[in-house]
Amino acid sequence: VQLVESGGGLVQPGGSLSLSCVVSGFTFSTSTITWYRQAPGKERESVATITPSGSSTYYADSVKGRFTISRNNAENAVRLQMTNLKPEDTALYYCNAKIGFTYYWGQGTQVTVSS
Q1: 26 or 110, greater pLDDT
Q2: Quick one: DSSP state of residue 74?
């Protein structure tokens, strides 16, 4: 099982970034995918979740209206579109796949929001 995140970087406040998570090694279309983030000195928190079919999504209050999670089951990929980024969005962003009672993690991609 492998999850590979990409798309992080340095962006100015108010800017946008799109993160991607490509997975392999399991039946992607049966997994619930969640993006998490962890800022220095803080606990890891859930940012956005998408169900296996993509029919339902859930967001942390802090990102509602700014972030959008989507998935392409044909390409085994999940995207997190982030807009109107704020300095407090700075963190290491992780992709997580839940299959049954098992969780798999990627290595993370760094997002830094700074002027």
Answers
A1: 110
A2: T
